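Section 5: illustrative case.
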């Protein structure tokens, strides 16, 4: 009996160590595509995809209001763009052969590094493109709710790319119209990039519905 218990304890330790060893994994060179709409103060104004190296995920979240506001304008000669934070709050799709949703896959906020620009003084709407990149995206998968210690963490590094922002001019101020980010990748043709951005646009209304429905259920 003593020998059996000793063997069982050893096996348990080895299983635990194996679980811990596999708990963190790095996934690199992932293509990111995002569509960012003006933030009306309710958030959930960003959506898109993370695709590559076994990942095929749709993500949603929001940027701070002041970074791309829906109702506050920017004066000519003022600064725009710059780095901010994307507060991801939903993710679903596939990792390898497994399918996940918000019940067993979680995503943390990520830094969004972007170049800045100066609003022109000619009084015309315009579009500007600046270099940009998404910082480390941390995902956590928990397929077994009874084993939180065995949840797997994925550190996702995405390819840098370009942030494109459009603004309209009205009553002496520039107002946010639409923005998009796409990783630079020679392996992804332009039509595919446009299709991914369309998916991003499609997830935004779903994000709004999910948020309103959650508030209604709590009321």
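Designed sequence:
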């Amino acid at each position: 009996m003593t020998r059996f218990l000793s063997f069982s304890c050893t096996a348990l330790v080895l299983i635990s160590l194996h679980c811990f060893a596999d708990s963190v994994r790095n996934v690199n060179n992932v293509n990111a595509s995002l569509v960012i709409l003006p933030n009306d103060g309710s958030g959930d104004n960003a959506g898109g995809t993370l695709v590559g190296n076994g990942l095929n995920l749709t993500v949603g979240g929001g940027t701070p209001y002041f970074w791309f506001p829906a109702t506050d304008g920017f004066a000519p000669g003022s600064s725009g763009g710059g780095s901010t934070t994307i507060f991801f709050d939903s993710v679903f799709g596939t990792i390898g052969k497994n399918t996940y949703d918000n019940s067993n896959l979680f995503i943390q906020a990520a830094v969004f590094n972007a170049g800045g620009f100066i609003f022109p003084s000619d009084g015309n709407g315009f579009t500007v493109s600046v270099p940009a990149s998404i910082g480390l995206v941390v995902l956590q998968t928990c397929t077994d709710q009874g084993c939180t210690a065995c949840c797997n963490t994925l550190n996702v590094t995405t390819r840098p790319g370009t942030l494109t922002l459009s603004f309209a001019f009205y009553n002496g101020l520039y107002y946010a119209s639409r923005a998009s980010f796409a990783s630079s990748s020679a392996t992804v043709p332009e039509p595919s990039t446009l299709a991914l951005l369309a998916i991003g646009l499609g997830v935004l209304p779903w994000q709004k519905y999910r948020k309103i429905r959650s508030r209604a259920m709590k009321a």
